[in-house]
Hints:
heterodimer; A: mainly alpha; MetI-like fold; B: alpha+beta; D-Maltodextrin-Binding Protein, domain 2; Dipeptide-binding Protein, domain 1; 3 domains; seven-stranded mixed sheet; disordered N terminus; Peptide/Ni-bd (chain B); SBP_5_dom (chain B)
Amino acid sequence: MLVYIARRIIYVIPIVISVALVCFLLVHITPGDPLVAVLPPDASQELAAQMRAAYGFDRPLPVQFGLWFWKALHGDLGTSIASGRPVFTEVMRAVNNTFILACTASVIGFVFGVFFGLVAGYFRNTWIDKLATGIAVTGVSVPHYWLGMVLVIIFSVTLNWLPAVGAGPGGWAWDWEHIRFLILPAVTMSVIPMGIVTRTVRALTGDILSQDFVEALRSKGLRERQVFRHVVKNATPTAIAVMGLQLGYLLGGSILIETVFSWPGTGFLLNSAIFQRDLPLLQGTILVLALFFVFLNLVVDVAQAAIDPRIKRS
Amino acid sequence: MPLPQIPLRSGRMLTAALLLATAAAVSAPGAVSAQTTLRIGMTAADIPRTLGQPDQGFEGNRFTGLTMYDGLVNWDLSSATKPSVLVPGLATEWKVDDADKTKWIFKLRPGVTFHDGAPFNADAVVWNVDKVLNKDAVQFDASQVGVTASRMPTLVSAKKIDDMTVELTTKEPDSFLPYNLTNLFMASPAKWQAFYDKAEGADAKAKAAAAWTAFAADASGTGPWKMTKFVPRERLELAKNDAYWDKARVPKTDRMVLLPMPEANARTAALLSGQVDWIEAPAPDALPQLKSRGFTISQNEQPHVWPWQFSRVEGSPWNDIRVRKAANLCIDREGLKDGLLGGLMVPATGTVEPGHPWRGTPTFQIKYDVKEGQKLMKEAGYGPDKKLKVKTQTSASGSGQMLPLPMNEYLQQALAECYFDVQLDVIEWNTLFTNWRRGAKDPTANGSNAINVTYAAMDPFFAMVRFLQSGMAPPVSNNWGFINNPEFDEMVKKARSTFDPAARDAALAELHAASVDDAAFLYVAHDVGPRALSPKVKGLVQPKSWFVDFSPVTVTP
Lengths: 314, 557
C-alpha cells in the first residue's frame, strides 16, 4: 500500500508542475496590463515601463515563471498587486469563506435531496413523485444567479428578513449575526446538488424497493416505517458518494453566486483578480484551487485502493 | 386519472418534513444603536487601499483617501453649483519662488495631529513625498508610486525649511503643482515607524513592505474619519474624528461603514432591503422603483468627458477641421441623454462647460445642427453617395465608459446622417487602455482613426495638457492622436508658467477655447456620478466633482 501511495504522489509531481505552468501561461497570455490596478489609465507609457521593471514584468516569461514557481514551492505566492497583501493570506481567507458556504450548501442540498429523492422514489408515479422530481429538475436547470436575485428580491427586498449581500460584520462566527448572511447564498448554491441527489436517490429507492429483501421484510411483518428505514440505509452510501463529488465542485467556488451576494470566497476573489488584472492573485488562487482538486483526487485514489485491492494491483 | 392514495402514516412523515423544510423562514432582528451609522455600498470589489494612496481610481480617493487623510491642498466640495476649486488643506498658504520657479514654499497648518496623536509637521511632508519619489528612503513603496507619481508628473523632492515650512521642487516651472498635490495624502510617519520597528523581514525592504501591510490594516492620517475596523474585501469601518482640525468639517455622523458591492443589482437590493443607506451607481433600470419608494437619486455634472479622441497622423480623415466640426454638430446629445441614458449625463460642449473658470469663450458652438454638419461635409467633399469611412476603437464596458456600446451605436447612426460610415472596433477594456498609451501610430490601433476612452478633467494637466501638447505624444503621455499644434503648445507653456491663479485660469481658458474652436475631440457627454440614498440620509451636497464630503451627512437613527 505504501508503495502504491508513494507512486501516486510521484505521479502528482508532474501534474502540479503542469498545473502551475498552465495557470501561469493562461493569465499571462490574456491581453491587458498587469499593472492596471496600481497604474492609472492615464499614466504615461514611460511610467508604465518603470513600474513594469519594478514588479519584474519586464523579464522574459520563463524567468518570471521560474521565480514565481520557486517561491510558490516555498509557500510564498507573492503579493497582490492591487491590495499589497500576501496572496497566500488572501487566498486562504477566501478558501475559508467558500468552505463555509460550500459545506452549508452541501448539507442543505444533501438533506433536501435525500428527502425529496426518498419521497419521490417511495411514492413513485404519484403526484408527490411528480412534485419532488419537478423540484429536482428545476434545481438543476435554473440559472444560479437568477435564482439568487429572485431570493434576494423575495427575502431581502420584499420581506426584509435576510440581508441581501455580504458575509456579516467581519470574520466568521457561527452566530445569528453571521448565519443570516449565509442563508440566501447557501440555499442558492444548494439547488444543483439537491437536484442531482434527488434524482439519484429517487432512482436508487425505486431500485431498492423492487429488490427481494424488501418483500422479505414486509413478509416478516415489519411495519412500513421500518421497511423505509432499511431503504434509507441502503440508499445513503450512494447519496453520500454523489454528494461528495458535488461538494468538490462547490468548494471550487462559484463566481456567479459569490458575486451576486458579494460573498468573499474564492469565486469573488477570482472575479476581482480577473477584472483588476492582478496576476499574482489570479495565479495564486488558480494554483491553490487546482492543487486542491489534485489533492482530492489523490485522496480518492488512495481511499479506493484501500477499499478495493484490485485497483491497487492494476 | 385519479392520483394514487398516500398512506396516512407516510402523509404525517411528509408533513413533518415540510415543516422542517420551512423552519428556515426567520426574521432578522435589527440592532438598535444610539450611534448614527452611515452604511455605503461601493462599486469597488475590494476596499480601496487604505495606506494613504488609494487604488481604484477616484472612487478610491473618495472613500479611503479624502476620508482618512488630507493633502497639503484640498478640494472645496461644499457647493453643488459652483465648480470645485482648490482650498488650503494641511498647508495654509503656498507660493512659488520668484527667483527660481521650480521651487515652492508651503506653510503648514499648525496644531494638526495624526489619528495616533503624532504631530503633523515638515518632517511628515518630506517623509510622505519620499514614500513615492525617493527610492532610497526606507519607506519607499513601489506599489504607491504608480497611482501617485503619474498625478504629480513634475514634483521631484521636498525639503524641510523649518518645522512648519517645506520647500517642494519641480523638474520644470509648473503652476499646476497645487492641483497635483491633492493626490498626495499625508500618512503618519510615527505610526508607520512603529510598525516598521516591530516588523519581521530579511532586509529593510521586506520590513518596509510588512510595515505598509500592517499600516493598511490600522491606518493613521489627519482626515475627518478614523479607521476603526478593516476586514479585507468585506468592510471598512470609520469613526468620526472629533479632533479634526477643520471644526466645520467634523462629521455629523458617528460611524461610516464602507462595503464593496461590485454588482449593480446587488447594491440596489441592499439599499432596498435597508442593509445600506447609500449606494454608488444604482442599477439604471431600478431608478423608477427607487424613486417611487422614497429613495433619493443624487447626481451632478462631473469633471469627466466621454469623447472620441481623433487621430491626427498623416492620412487621417480627421485632419480636416470641417470633418471634425461636422461630427460635433451631428450628435443629438439631448436625445442621447433622455433616450438612452435616462437623464444620467450632461451634454458635453467641451472639456468643461460654461461657468467653469477654464471654459473661455469658444467661437465654435457645439450643438445639434445636422444641416450645418451636412454642409461642412459637402464642402469637405463627402455626401450621400460618397461617405467618409472612419473607424473608432472602443470597449464593451469599463470604468467611466458609461454605456460604451449603445452610445457608440447611437453615434454611428447619428453620424450616418452626416455622411459618415462609422466602423466600431470593440476590444476589451484594459486592452483599450494599453492601446491608448501606445498611440494611433501603433499597430494596436488596428487602423482606427479615433479612440473612445473617457477621461477625468480634475486638473489642467489631465483635462487638457496631456492631450493637446505635442510633447505629450506617446510614449510620454496620452496625446494618442499625435496632435501637433504650435498654438496649443504655446498656450500650454504660458499656462504652466503663469503662477497667479486667476491669470493661470485665464490662460487655461484660452487653451480650452482654442481646443473647442479646433474641434480637437468629438465631445459627447459628461458623467453625473449617480448615487441613491435612503430617505434617512440628509445633508449630502453633491459637488461638481468626483469626490464628496461626507462630513455634513446625517442619518436618522
